[in-house]
Amino acid sequence: MEKTIRQMLSKKQKIILVIVIAVALNAITFCLAFPETFKPESTTWARDFSAYYIGEWHLFHNPTKIYWGGVQPGDYQILPAPQTFKYTPSFLILFASFLSLSYQNALTAFDIVQLALIPALAFFVYKIVKDKNLVFAAIAAIIILIEPLPTPPINQGALNLLQYRFFSLNPQSFSPVYYAGYVLANAHILQTILLVGALYFGFTKRPWFSALLFAFGSFDPRAALLALPLLLWYNRKRILPFIAGAASFLAITNLPFFFYYNIGFSFLRSETSGSIISQMYPYDWLPIYAIVTLTILEIINAPETQKRSFPLARKKEN
Question: Shortest CA distance to 121 belongs to which of 140, 95, 108, 105?
């Protein structure tokens, strides 16, 4: 029976089957995490989403305090206390519409939007891996869409490992990082979608779309810098439009903030005064693992890509 099924399914159909199962498991992870978003996170800080909400609120009501920690006089009340906004100013453009909702409703909407974009991530992954080795393509899809790899938070202590069930046998253990991302309504799920989308558009020779998603996906520069070599490789045949587009979109979405209450300079000060390594949390690994996985897959597939790229040259040599 198994042999018959394997014979009936083509290579691409097998990859699609793996991706569909991975998306379903991701949805199950969301269903397990979603009820937790209505419970208090801790007695000290609100969820990660509070940083985005209060950062956006400050943009319209107290722009000089966007990158300041702690509660400021007259702030929108988020209990027990909002976390500090740390992303690039461009993220405030992406997030602006959520400020029209109350904090809890905005958190719920943000999580649902991230879940709704997972099929888009699955589509991007399928298009990139479908012509590559079946086993490696399936592994890449599983890593990107489920993230089952161990990702202990650096310098966060054992408490977080237990809190997010990294050592448990509960159902959410097959996707602990996505679980943490949904529970905290953290934007690294969105960043993974944007950066993989940028890779997809580079892979399909659409450099301006690639540049646009790269610009908006750069709100945490660490993962964006890691994605840049593969983006340049995928866009190599139209490298100038990609570079021009990326520079233009990054400037358009960030440069005006340097002239509005020095928000851009406040971001630079906040980045240079902190430790990048100490700020690595479990969900930070989502875009990193996705980019590293696709990079390794491309390296493995490089000989085959070269064969397809130069068939005429080989014939002449023969």
Answer: 140
Give me the half-sphere count of Cα atoms (radius 13 Å) on the Cβ side of residue 248.
12
* Residue 42 pLDDT class (50, 70, 90 cuts): confident
Paired tokens of 298: 């491309």
Across 276-289, average pLDDT: 77
- Rounded to the nearest 10°, the torsion over CA 7, 120, 107, 38 is -10
Establish if 3 belongs to a structural domain.
no
User: Of 7-21, 185-199, 270-284, where does mean pLDDT reach its minimum?
Assistant: 270-284
Residue 177 to residue 75: CA distance in whole angstroms:
31
Q: Give the structural domain span for 41.
A: 9-298
- Residue 81 vs residues 20, 93, 128, 310: alpha-carbon distances, Å: 39, 23, 42, 59
Q: For the chain, what is the domain count?
A: 1
pLDDT recorded at residue 155: 47
- The residue-averaged pLDDT of 21-46 equals 91
3-class secondary structure for 157-198? HHHHHHHCCCCCCCHHHHCHHHHHHHHCCCCHHHHHHHHHHH
Report the phi/psi class of residue 205: left, alpha or beta, with left for phi > 0 and alpha for psi in -120 to 50. Answer: left
1 within some domain? no
* Backbone phi and psi for residue 86, each to the nearest 5 degrees, phi listed first: -130, -5
Question: Does this model's pTM top 0.90?
Answer: no
Q: Any long-range contacts for 157-160 (C-beta under 8 Å, 24+ apart)?
A: 160/281, 160/282
Does residue 110 sit within a domain? Answer: yes
